[in-house]
Prior knowledge:
The structure holds 2 protein chains of 2 kinds. Chain A is mainly alpha-helical.
Amino acid sequence: MIRRVCALLLRELSVFYFSPIAYVVLFFFLILNGLSFWFAIALLRQGPSELTVVQAFFNTLFFWTAYLFVCPVITMRLFSEEFKLGTVETLMTAPVRDWEVVASKFCAALLFYLTLWLPSLLYFLVFGWLGNRDAVGSGAQLWGPYLLLLLMGAFNISLGCLASSLTSNQIVAAMMALVFILGIFFLTMIDYVVSSASPLFRDITAYVAQIDHMDTFSRGIIDTRPLVFYPTCSALVLLITYHVFQYRRWKA
Amino acid sequence: MSMIKVEHLTKEYAGTVAVKEISFEVDRGEIVGFLGPNGAGKSTTMRILASYLPPTSGRATIAGFDVFTDSLRARMRLGYLAENVPLYHDMRIDEYLRYRGTLKGLAGKKLAMRVGATKELCGLREVGRKKIAGLSKGFRQRVGLAEAMIHEPDLLILDEPTIGLDPNQIRQVRELIRSLGERHTILLSTHILSEVEATCNRVLIINRGKIEASDTPQNLVSQLRTSGLVNLEVKAGNENPSDYLLKIPGVKDVQLEKDGLWRKGWIRIEANSDLREEIFTLAVERKWVIRELSKERATLEDVFVELTHAET
Ligand SMILES: Nc1ncnc2c1ncn2[C@@H]1O[C@H](COP(=O)(O)OP(=O)(O)OP(=O)(O)O)[C@@H](O)[C@H]1O
Ligand SMILES: [Mg+2]
């Protein structure tokens, strides 16, 4: 079973790392990351500031754009392409379990997503190494945001998997995933717009207040609520994905 | 123990019933041809056997393992070639075969050996480095075939394995199937009936979701109702041979057309009878000259048409 899952995972990863589209994604991602980094530095150069460069980086518009748009692009083909090409038939008539397929697709997407953030981590390490240790902040202040990126990314990717399993059209899958992800991202914004929102609503949306979470984590504080919330939700969405995948295959 | 056992299998799609309560068995070592007109339910049955679709009711087992409740073990013993041979376009042939071999539990030397052997068998030795996206239909079919048998499964289920192949390749695949049949059990669907006559020990004919016949090709042909046809070419002067021929007991219908001095056509007689002797005696009596007198040999095609053509 281990060997089988490895084969599935390797297959998915090789699609990510050997396809030209992946490098287009990487290219745009690097540009956006570079811009955020540049803005972060520019901000700090305006004068003495409370912020570390990490905090500033994870607060730019460019960072959030890259973060929100990358997952739909990564996940869009995962299941839709199998349905479109009909390869789901060859895949599922091999001795593999449905959950092994769902899990390996999810993990491959998550791994690719994580490698996309590596260059930014490199920026900070080089930046700190060049002498600005204080500007980068403590270890927790550097690793906190990356931990959060992993958690929130896993959640977004699970949403992308769900969207991709719902349709055979990659573009539609990407759109749907974007709607899910943006919908959840902007849920907390309702608080700011509608002042009469009930406190209960506020409490609930606090769980998905991604900007607030990033603020907390980049100050070096590890909040346990997102630590539990995001993995739970990811697992839940993946479970739904698993059922949708099975249902669509059986209906075919 | 039978390799495939299907009991009262029914499959409904939203609105339509594709397969109705079918039951059949395939024994180890048999090569069974699965025939039927378009939309009869062949692919549906095969997909259920390959654990791709769940049956609506009834059950099916492969080597004793239920295809639904014990599907992983059933799938281990099965090589399946899907109807349109879906493949990953971005992979190379070698890469694809290795990947599929690993999924089916092969590794290391054994995997390399099987990849080599199946490529050899399916005529893919020289094109292993090619991308699947650039392959012609026939080569994709070969890749699909190679993939289906990579793990040396006990049972091969092939949905139209020779569609899109050139005549040489069809012949090769036929030979391949026959040689595989020595060690494997094979269930194959096809619309090429000569292929079935050449390779299969048994034929299953399905029509509108029901099994209409299950027997050896020879038996099916000999039991055919319409097999009693005699061709005749005769010179009878001024007489009309039809009048006399119809008087022979057992003759049901005569259709002769005038062609100069000759009359040419057929005589329908009762199945399993042979009236050529009586016809010859009659001709001698009436002083007719016979240029052709032969019994029409029925083919599997006639059986197929007879069983599946009805009132469509
Ligand atoms: N996914 C589906 N949804 C709804 N109906 C389907 C589906 N697949 C097949 N059918 C119906 O089930 C019946 C049997 O189809 P099937 O594909 O099994 O036929 P077949 O014997 O393989 O035909 P062919 O010789 O054309 O390959 C047909 O009436 C078809 O319309
Ligand atoms: Mg078919």
